[in-house]
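User: For a benchmark we're assembling, each entry needs the component sequences followed by a predicted structure for the full assembly. Here are entry 17's components. Please fill in the structure.
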Amino acid sequence: MSKNKGKYHKKYDWFYQTSEWKALRSARFTYANGLCERCRRHGIVAEGKEVHHIVPIDKDWARRLDFDNTILLCSNCHNAQHERVSPLQKFNLLWEDLNNGGTPSEDGTEQKLKSK
Ligand SMILES: [Zn+2]
Ligand SMILES: [Zn+2]
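Assistant: Structure for entry 17:
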């Protein structure tokens, strides 16, 4: 079953469009006050850009909506996390690209968080 990568790819793509994921993602943003949680541990204040799965969803699909399995990261930290897993990084960049294309969501999110 897990040998069918193409099917899984579509599954992930679909997952990142679901309202469940979007709700979890925005909850994590709020929880982290819009700041990178990894940088914060080192006393650095950096704007959080992406909610990352600590255990990747291709490794543990059951934890895709586990709040404790998510972390808000800045672009640098997120890239660093994915450099170790090159196929996933490739995939992630792809969906980030899709995500950022067309909608000015980053600015909107930032302003929403700051006005709170
Ligand atoms: Zn960071
Ligand atoms: Zn990630």
